[in-house]
Write a structure and sequence with these properties.
The protein is of the alpha/beta class. The chain is built from 16 helices and twelve strands. The protein folds into two domains: 192 residues, Rossmann fold (3-Layer(aba) Sandwich); 181 residues, 3-Layer(aba) Sandwich (Rossmann fold), CATH 3.40.50.
Length: 385
């Protein structure tokens, strides 16, 4: 009889996208249940992954009363289902899931850390978030930062002891689907059609950014740098793939003005499938301030693009300086401008698509990450049996 494994995320889109394919893989070895807030995405996880799902409402914001309700509901689920393993992802699922699992006596309680938003907080909010993080880790039997950088930050912040921490494989929560993110997946005809629609000329050099168009992702710096670049390079475009969030992290008025006036900046909004846009681009630019383990960088390299990234955890573990891209300091407009300028001037050097793809295939393909996590599950089970 299979042991029972429960996976939890705060919102169902994370269960569906962040851990895509992993549920069905694990269901070969475990009786898997996915838990998240209710929604169509949760129904899709049940259908696509072939696992049981349970809806438990969780909020992403600080809501003490609702959070206690979530803990109680999860506690009741755990007492009923009797899982051997509970594994949480995302911050709120972590605190309510780990607390409920400990209260319910679940023997193996695991939490994956994919980012630490608290690092940008200060004052009372920082103290509160630090306390929540420490409580989450204290309730867990093991904590999995999904990058070496996060591993070191957790130790520096003294959130838990080193013995409780482990980076699975080479990092990443789910690895990269190298079959889906493959340059061959987008035909030449599709590329030409998209270029025509976006008014990109055959000899244009295209920088691409994928993600939320917010200050925290370095968009203010990127737009300022590109304005300088485009003044001296007429056959250059900046392709922005993602939605803005003016109510949460608005861009500066100057940035918005440049985006509206510069015809070489192309906005296409959020796109469910980013592969066609990567296929018509020459390089990824990702000047974010903080990340866990950025899938966008994995996706770009898997599609054969070099990348300019900031020297933060995750990014500096995927990109190897001079081999599949270049690394710059965050929030440094001059460094970003120089890196983009240099890549343009040396563009013949940065055309080894197979080499960039190989850096991902060899280290981050999903099968490597999944099997490493499965091995960890089995090792932990052997110690509690």
């Amino acid at each position: 009889m299979k042991s029972k494994l429960i996976r939890i995320t705060t919102v169902p889109s994370s269960l569906k996208i962040l851990l895509k394919g992993q549920h069905s893989f694990m269901s070969e070895y475990y009786d898997v249940i996915g838990i998240s807030s209710k929604g169509e995405d949760l129904d899709e996880v049940k259908k696509i992954e072939g696992i049981e799902t349970i809806a438990v409402e969780m909020t992403r914001t600080i809501t003490p009363f609702k959070d206690l309700q979530s803990v109680w509901k999860l506690y009741r689920v755990f007492r009923r289902e009797r899982p051997k393993i509970v594994h949480t992802h995302t911050p709120k699922a972590g605190i309510v899931g780990m607390l409920a699992a400990k209260l319910a006596g679940v023997p193996i309680r695991l939490h994956t850390v994919a980012g630490l938003p608290l690092l940008e907080a200060s004052g009372l909010k920082r103290f509160l978030l630090n306390s929540v993080e420490k409580l989450t880790y204290s309730c867990a039997t093991k904590v999995y930062p999904n990058s070496v950088g996060l591993f070191n930050i957790i130790l520096e912040q003294k959130f838990c002891k080193k013995e409780k921490l482990m980076v699975i494989s080479n990092g990443s929560s789910n690895g990269m689907d190298i079959h889906y993110f493959n340059p061959a997946a987008v035909s030449n005809e599709q590329q030409q059609t998209l270029k025509k629609d976006l008014q990109i000329k055959p000899n244009d050099f295209v920088f691409i950014f994928i993600g939320r168009l917010v200050g925290d992702k370095g968009i203010n710096e990127l737009i300022t740098s590109f304005r300088t670049i485009s003044n001296s390079h007429k056959n250059c475009k900046l392709l922005l793939v993602g939605a803005s969030e003016p109510e949460l992290d608005p861009l500066s008025s100057e940035t918005i003005s440049i985006m509206n006036e510069n015809k070489d900046i192309i906005e296409v909004g959020f796109q469910k499938d980013v592969r066609p846009y990567l296929s018509i681009s020459n390089a990824l630019v990702f000047p974010t301030y903080r990340e866990g383990f950025p899938n966008v960088v994995l996706q770009a390299c898997a599609m054969g693009l070099p990348a300019i990234v900031t020297d933060i955890n995750g990014c500096n573990e995927i990109i190897m300086e001079g081999k599949n891209g270049t690394i710059i300091a965050p929030k440094d407009i001059d460094a970003l401008t120089n890196a983009m300028q240099k890549l343009l001037e040396e563009k013949e050097r940065w055309q080894d698509a197979n080499s960039y793809r190989k850096t991902i295939v060899d280290r981050f393909q999903q099968e490597i990450v999944w099997n490493a996590l499965l091995a960890e599950y089995k090792t932990l089970e052997a110690h509690v049996c």
